[in-house]
Structure formats: structure tokens, C-alpha cells
Design brief:
By secondary structure, the chain is mainly α. It has two domains: 56 residues, no CATH class; 116 residues, AhpD-like, CATH 1.20.1290.10. Helix content is 56%, strand content 0%.
């Protein structure tokens, strides 16, 4: 279960949450009968419904990046979003945007190669440039070398770069929040835990081994 309360349909906000619930879940109460068309539980929506203003702001962000008014190529945008999910370790964001790439006609080879894009030879120069920039935004927290930014400026307009920056950072945030709140596919145990030593192994033994 997610870490925050899920808001059932009967308690959901009439203006923001209920219309979104109806769009995604039809006549079902998403708490009692979870599940979306993409196979997720759908609890991102029911958790965000705790704050209608927050849910509205987030939903407007989805409308923004999907708008036909955007100048950045949607495939490039989705590559950056997918990398953001992978780099942050959000199984939810990564999984959903793999599906978005597939919906845009991106090959299975490229989708599978996103986690190792640095050594993959299936991406063209523009795609690699966008992935390198997304990596600098997410993994390096915005430390973008001048040389990389100059290459972006040579291929993309200022408007395209601003959109790409905003959308990638937006999905960095979504990935972090999903992990923190344990929503959707991020409702899982942290894999990094101490593995217990054998019962007869002591602290002194550990010091003696030097490792």
C-alpha cells in the first residue's frame, strides 16, 4: 500500500478528483476496485487526491507536456522522461514511459537500450544528445558542461531546450515522489539492505579478514 491515505470516490473533490477518477476508472471506486488501462494500480491518483490543488497542478503538467503546442519532438521528450525514471530508480515512471515510447513507434531495441544508452549504438546523434542532457539534469543535478550545452544550442531552439529541461525535471520530481510515497510500481521494499552474516561470524572475525 502507498504511504499516504487513498481517497475513495465518495470523499473525492467534486471539481478536480472525481472527473479524473471517472476518466480513468469509469464507474469504479478506484480504492475499492483499483486498476488502470495501463496495468497500474492507479493509487498515484487516489493519493494525490488528498490535496485537490496538488492533483490539479500535477494533471495540468501532464496536459502541458502532451500538448500539440510543444516544440520538442515527443520521442526526444519521452526518451528524457524514461531516463529520468530509470536514473532515479522509479519503476513506475520508467515503466510508464517505456510504454509511451512504444506508443510513439519507438523500436523495442531502443526502449531496451535506454538503461545503457551510453554504450548503445541504436540511438542517433540527436537522441544521444538529449539522453546526455537528461543524464546531466537528473544524475548530475543540473551540472551541464558548456560543451554539451553548446551542442544542444546548435541543434535545438531555445524554446525546445527550455521545454525539454522543464519536462525532464518535472519527471525527475515525479519519480522521486513516487518512490517516497510508494505509489504504483514503486510500492516495493528497498533492495539495499544489510545481508546478515553467518550466526558464528563475529565482529572480531570481520576485522581480522580486512573486508
Amino acid at each position: 500500500m502507498p504511504r499516504l491515505r487513498e481517497v475513495p470516490f465518495a470523499e473525492a473533490d467534486d471539481t478536480v478528483a472525481k472527473p479524473l477518477y471517472r476518466m480513468l476508472f469509469g464507474d469504479r471506486d478506484p480504492v475499492e476496485e483499483p486498476g488502470t488501462a495501463t496495468g497500474t494500480p492507479g493509487d498515484w491518483w487516489t493519493v494525490f487526491a488528498n490535496s485537490p490543488d496538488t492533483l490539479k497542478h500535477a494533471a495540468q503538467g501532464f496536459g502541458y507536456y502532451r500538448s500539440a503546442d510543444r516544440k520538442i519532438d515527443p520521442v526526444l521528450r519521452e526518451l528524457a522522461q524514461t531516463w529520468a525514471g530509470y536514473a532515479v530508480g522509479s519503476q513506475f515512471v520508467f515503466s510508464q514511459h517505456c510504454k509511451s515510447l512504444r506508443g510513439l513507434g519507438v523500436s523495442e531495441e531502443k526502449i531496451a537500450a535506454v538503461p545503457c544508452w551510453q554504450t548503445a549504438d541504436c540511438f542517433d546523434a540527436r537522441e544521444r544528445l538529449v539522453l546526455a542532457y537528461a543524464d546531466r539534469l537528473v544524475t548530475h543535478r543540473g551540472r551541464v558542461p558548456d560543451a554539451l550545452f553548446e551542442k544542444l544550442k546548435a541543434r535545438f531552439s531555445d524554446e525546445e531546450i527550455l521545454e525539454l529541461t522543464y519536462i525532464t525535471c518535472l519527471y525527475d520530481m515525479h519519480a522521486v515522489m513516487s518512490r517516497a510515497l510508494k505509489t504504483e510500481f514503486d510500492n516495493r521494499d528497498d533492495p539495499i539492505v544489510e545481508i546478515a552474516a553467518p550466526a558464528d561470524f563475529t565482529a572480531t572475525d570481520f576485522l581480522d579478514t580486512g573486508r
